[in-house]
Amino acid sequence: MTTEYPFDEAATARAVIDAEGRVTQWGEGARRLLGWTADEVVGRPAARLVQGATPTPRGPRWDGTVTLRHRDGRRVSVWLLAHRRPGPGRREGDCLVVTPLRAARARPDDDPLDRADLTQSPCAVAIYDERLRLHRMNDALAAVIGLPEERVRGLRVTEISGRLQTEEVEQQLHRVLTTGQGHDVRTYVPVGEDGRMNAWLGRMAPVTDAAGRVCGVCVTVHDFTDQYLARERLQLVNEASVRIGSTLDVTRTAQELADVCVPGLADFVSVDLLDPREPGGEPVAGPLTAPITLRRAAHQSINPGSPEAVVEPGGLDVYPAASPQADSLLAGRTIVADVPSRALARWLSWDRARMERVRQYGIHSTMSVPIRARGATLGVAVLTRFRHPHPFTPDDQLLAEEITARAAVCIDNARRYSRERETALALQRSLLPQSLPNTAAVQACSRYLPAARAGVGGDWFDVIPLSGMRVAMVVGDVVGHGIQASATMGRLRTAVRTLADIDLAPDELLTHLDDLVLRLSDEAGSDDGTGEVGATCLYAVYDPVSRRCTLARAGHPSPLMVRPGGTAEEVELPAGPPLGLGGLPFEAVELYLPEGTVLSFFTDGLIESRDRDVGTGHERLREALSRSSASLDETCDRILHRLLPTGGASDDVALLLARTQGLPASRVATWDIPADPALVAPVRKQVIDQLGTWGLEEAGFTTELVVSELITNAIRYGTHPIRLRLIHDTATLICEVSDTSHTAPHLRRAKIWDEGGRGLLLVAQLTQRWGSRHTPEGKTIWAELALFEEE
Length: 791
What we know:
Layout: E1 12-17, E2 23-26, H1 28-34, H2 38-41, E3 61-69, E4 75-84, E5 95-100, H3 112-115, E6 124-129, E7 134-137, H4 139-145, H5 149-152, H6 157-161, H7 166-179, E8 183-190, E9 197-208, E10 214-223, H8 225-243, H9 250-261, E11 268-273, E12 292-301, E13 316-319, H10 324-331, E14 335-338, H11 345-350, H12 352-361, E15 365-373, E16 376-385, H13 394-431, E17 442-449, E18 457-465, E19 471-481, H14 483-501, H15 506-523, E20 535-543, E21 548-554, E22 560-562, E23 568-570, E24 589-592, E25 598-602, H16 614-626, H17 632-643, E26 653-660, E27 668-673, H18 680-694, H19 700-717, E28 722-728, E29 732-739, H20 759-766, E30 769-774, E31 779-786
Antiparallel strand pairs: 1-2, 1-5, 3-4, 4-5, 6-7, 6-10, 8-9, 9-10, 11-12, 11-16, 12-13, 14-15, 15-16, 17-26, 18-19, 19-20, 20-21, 21-24, 22-23, 22-25, 25-26, 27-28, 28-29, 29-31, 30-31
Helix pairs in contact: 8-9, 8-13, 9-13, 13-14, 14-15, 16-17, 18-19, 19-20
């Protein structure tokens, strides 16, 4: 009598025998049956109680008639029911041996338990008495249990089944017996000798006598294993739809397929994919031929570390025609093969490594499912069983095909995304500057990182040399991702370079760029007229002679600057509207920057993140910039390491650092030009003298001609005051003539009888480039002469 079973257990002859054949437990019922006490039996071999050969139970359950020895010397023929119980780990456990004693107490003729009509019921029905011992059961339940009623009458539920799961069932029976209230229970327990798990729905109801007293429990049992397995399969399909395809990464999707199938469908799953014939190309669409080379994308096992795997993820393996992988791909359908039937013998004899795995882990069944999507073959998923005792069924095959079909679409989508991403990334990199120009105005360094998960965006940057040793720096961001964003970025970058070439002020340049974005929006607009193109931009022009920088922005983050010996600070700029809104003005700000000032231009992907706000990103950028470093490359790397997560940013990142340089005053010479053309000769002489001071005597003749033509044109067609400026760099000499007229000159072809019109043509022939730019006071005509040698 125990707390779990508060009744006399002497109605059953009960003993427990360990794996070595020794008696470990001896019940009161066993003493009544054979006369031996527990002290006389426990710890001794059970074979001493058997007359003749000792039966050897095979499997989890055994029953039969055995001749036993009574304590007084008599022989007792007894029907025994034995259950082999699992031991710790995978070791063999002890054996529970029971038999009901026939000396059950007499019951009245009008016993309500006997009045229950069981034989005609199509359901499995059992009746348990007030001690929860089997009193009656019908043929339907006897067929389920596999034992006749006369053999098990008087046994408890736990003694009939011998499984640990039945203890809960007995507790439910006791609950009905004590409360007098019916109860439904669902359980998943093995029944029979094959060990197959069955799902059972039991309805328990109290049995009462004429006075209403509960004297037993009636149980009806329904096997709903098929419905249970169908629900399990449906849940697995639902889990696959949720878990597979969470990212657009081929390897991750293949791993999700393997993870979903283990352990619900298989003990080990491998996913092997075909490599495209060309990098970034389409998967194989035509017929395949053996042998087939596959690349392991993922695998999963019920054992940690997947020790069953012969190939590691990323490795290649060649599968001959006899292999299940090749067979399923060549046939275009699922192939199920069992090791005991020697269906895999030819392949395993060729692949010794897999043969060893099959023997080591007891692999008995495989199922190879082709991975196909949109008419193309992507690879094969191989499901393997070794711990699961049963081979794959047709229902298992349908389930595997359903899950694999879902994964195939996700893998194909991931591959298509990867190809588009690679194309967009190649386009993006081709449109970005391959290297930054070496200018006298700034030292520049840049970084561009595409988004880790999203499509390639439209971030860009550029450094553009301008006239007069000046330099323009620009950074921008096109709204959206993909090839369209990259193409739009290329058009905007080309437009900025064109507008910069005519030396527009930053605010004017952004106004023209805004008009361009509006036109692009109209071209790409939807039916309702809504524009689909938007961008932000920051444009800055730095003059190394004056050391002044003019900046304007269109909805873009303000740059940070670090003055020599100082800390990072944000440049205060009017925000300006994003490009594409139209009709709103842009404002420019002019700053004096000491030589050695570091400017930081960036896109919002650097400072914005799902894990932190913009303020935190700005603060981290300030900290990274404030740490002094002579190398801009090191500073760029430090910024990216400080601000970006290990797995990459969620948006594109463009970063441009520029350290300003100043041109010494000794390299600049300026003259005010008189209005009288006759006084130009003294100016030419002063220019020659200045070239001598700089050691540029060899450039004197060309410079004198260019200066003479530019000054003469300014006096003849311009407005006073007129100023001449020479700027000397290491490899370039720049001549600039400024006046207050806004009329720009243009190159024309002079006719034979024309007296003039050849001056600018001569300047164009003598210089490497020339041009004009508008200033707030008027215009400046400039020309650059290349210095091949410097003394």
